[in-house]
Amino acid sequence: MNELALEVGGLAKRFRLHTQGGVEIEVFRDLDLAVRAGECVALHGPSGCGKSTLLRALYANYAVDAGSIRVRHAKGWADMARAEPRAILDVRRRTMGYVSQFLRVIPRVPALEIVAEPLRQRGIAAEEAHSRAGAMLARLNVPERLWGLAPATFSGGEQQRVNIARGFIAEMPILLLDEPTAALDAANRAVVADLILERKRAGTAIVGIFHDAEIRAQVCDRLFEIAPFKVAA
Amino acid sequence: MSAVDQPLLRVESLTRYFGARAACRDVSFDLWPGEVMGVVGESGSGKTTLLNCLSARLRPDAGRVLYQTRHEGVVDIYDLREAERRLLMRTDWGLVHQNPRDGLRMGVSAGANIGERLMAVGARHYGEIRDAASAWLGRVEIDLSRIDDRPRAFSGGMQQRLQIARNLVTAPRIVFMDEPTGGLDVSVQARLLDLLRELVRELHLSVVIVTHDLAVVRLLAHRLLVMRQGEVVEAGLTDQVLDDPQHPYTQLLVSSVLQA
Amino acid sequence: MNTGGYNFAYLDEQTKRMLRRTILKAVAIPGYQVPFGDREMPMPHGWGTGGIQVTAAIIGPDDVLKVIDQGADDTTNAVSIRKFFAKTAGVATTTRTEDATIVQTRHRIPEKPLHEGQILVYQVPIPEPLRWLEPRETETRKMHALSEYGIMHVRLYEDIATHGRIATSYDYPVQVNDRYMMRPSPIPKFDNPKMDMNPALQLFGAGREKRIYAVPPYTKVKSLDFDDYPFEVQSWDQSCALCGAGDSFLDEIITSDRGDRMFVCSDSDYCQDRQAARSKEAAE
């Protein structure tokens, strides 16, 4: 069995909405999850049960109230629930990738640059980063005429594919995927499935949200239920 | 511990009063090499006072600003002799003002504006100074043909880019920015932000950027301090603070912004 | 001695003492501008009141005074000041550089080399070399204190960028004794090299701005420049039309409405000496 890549223990998350009279929304509590290298886990549960919230918490995009998110990183472990910002950014730069549902467009920055960015951040020279980014965009059927343009005007599907290219190019040991195929046609869904399987073979631990049952069956090893009863328990 | 494992700037319990009112109270943080820290808050929240204290222009009433020098270890910048402090400000540090008029010499050419810091630290070869000025104009996307024009004749965005070039020519390690995109058109802002992102990465700059524009910090800053009434009410990773704000004030601030 | 009812050299003794203390301080810190209490003089600012007060403070009954304006002894300003001291101090005056113990000057340094014991007093309109870039007095004082002189080169840079060479030709900035930046007053930069290691004491008085500064004898005075644009003085294709000198500072004089012109020495004493020597040679 492969070694652990991600280990979540006793995780709790609630939102306190101060602008709405201090309403508290508890999302999950005492959540445990372990993911091994090469394993793909699909978060599962009804809409609104906190799948996206968990994914964001794993990436430290959301803060958590209790528990730990241990990530195998740089020959040791980092706790995304507690680490300093710069340590979290280092995990994101070298260990953990995140493909969100929507591309956060940066004004004026062309698609090729957006995709190459994770490589550039790791110090890979512009030329090599660009050529690898181009190959990845080509594989995802993003027409070359778009590479030099900022994606603000792209279609939803095109934006999603730029986003996926950016997420996969860095070949991170851990990948978080939030509905990566939602806006894609069958051909591109197949490309993404291939990419995921490829990463798994390379030993990447993957946690994702897959509404598409076909893709889920194709790439996932198991389901992780986030059930509302967790809150009640 | 090597210098690489040390913060470049360590701020300890910085406090500054204006009369009885604390414009900035008990602010502490570390700034690491290559790190961009955003300071957000509404007008009067103390963010500009904080920036002035950090950039050696306003002595705090309490607390320390410790700087990791290139060769002489850690110094409290307010313990330095004034000559040393001013030398640091001309070499290791940069300061980008909101209003380019405060940061540029409007009466001399763009080339001289860029060359000034070089001449201030002893450059005495006209050809080399001019070459450096030309190279920097190129990097901030100002046409070389404008090198002998005065900044008065430049657009707001160009003036701001010139101000950045003027600061970066001596390869500073920290740049302090006060609302660098304030007063610029949205499209001009985007270009400036893009340029700043690029420069920060290439030059491995540490930056403290004060702004009330959350979109600016989302694009540029690794970390965020949220200030209110002179105090830091929330601090952390930029996207975490903006996407999952904890403090009531931060929640209000974030929810008040129109989503583009 | 008859001083026409005035106190010796016009100023009262207290004022002269104050000025002398200021001058001593200025000599002790070469190039540093020392503030002083400017007194009302019987002529307006702009007529050399700073230089006159300095001269009044240092002149004694045995001194021999020469006064020049733009190099000439016979212009209104020079004549008036010479008469002023002849009347109020009863001192001897001269037009011969080598005979003078004190030379008060506006805009020139005499062509004949000065010697030890002589004092050259400059009239200064604007003493602060940093003023063109920095209007705040508090800031310029701080810049002097910390030797922050980089911006002086900004000005030379602008000159080269605009004209292809350093076009500044008057009041060309110098650094004194490797320390203070100084304005030499509006002398042509042709005269700048004469200030360097000069055996005479050089005193500078700015009346309106209330500053006195000094270059003691044998003090280094360096004109600013760039490595690739070294300091250069003016030169002329012509020689003096009157004395034939090829090594002096020449004034261009328009001699007719048709635009005829001639070049003559700006230093009248130097020119006359040379003319006298020539006619003597011719006679022999």
Automatic annotation (TrEMBL), chain A:
InterPro entries xref list: AAA+_ATPase, ABC_transporter-like_ATP-bd, ABC_transporter-like_CS, CP_lyase_PhnL, P-loop_NTPase
Keyword ATP-binding: yes
GO molecular function: lyase activity
This protein's UniProt keywords: ATP-binding, Lyase, Nucleotide-binding
Domain of life: Bacteria
Keyword presence, Lyase: yes
Pfam family for this entry, one: ABC_tran
Sequence ranges assigned to domain ABC transporter in this UniProt record: 6-233
Family, as annotated: Belongs to the ABC transporter superfamily.
Protein name: Phosphonate C-P lyase system protein PhnL
Organism for this UniProt entry: Dongia sedimenti
TrEMBL record, chain B:
Keywords from the UniProt entry: ATP-binding, Lyase, Nucleotide-binding
Coiled coil: none
Record carries keyword Transport: no
Signal peptide feature range: none
Family matches, as Pfam families: ABC_tran (PF00005)
SMART domains cross-referenced by the UniProt entry: AAA (SM00382)
SUPFAM superfamilies: P-loop containing nucleoside triphosphate hydrolases
Ranges of residues in domain ABC transporter: 9-254
One GO MF term: lyase activity
NCBIfam families: CP_lyasePhnK (TIGR02323)
Name of the featured protein: Phosphonate C-P lyase system protein PhnK
Automatic annotation (TrEMBL), chain C:
Lineage, uppermost ranks: Bacteria, Pseudomonadati, Pseudomonadota, Alphaproteobacteria, Rhodospirillales
Domain of life of the native organism: Bacteria
Keywords from the named record: 4Fe-4S, Iron, Iron-sulfur, Lyase, Metal-binding, S-adenosyl-L-methionine
The enzyme's E.C. designation: 4.7.1.1
Reactions accelerated catalytically: alpha-D-ribose 1-methylphosphonate 5-phosphate + AH2 + S-adenosyl-L-methionine = alpha-D-ribose 1,2-cyclic phosphate 5-phosphate + methane + 5'-deoxyadenosine + L-methionine + A + H(+)
Natural source organism: Dongia sedimenti
Family the UniProt entry places it in: Belongs to the PhnJ family.
UniProt-recorded name of the protein: Alpha-D-ribose 1-methylphosphonate 5-phosphate C-P lyase
Task of the protein: Catalyzes the breakage of the C-P bond in alpha-D-ribose 1-methylphosphonate 5-phosphate (PRPn) forming alpha-D-ribose.
Pfam family membership, one: PhnJ
Enzyme class: lyase
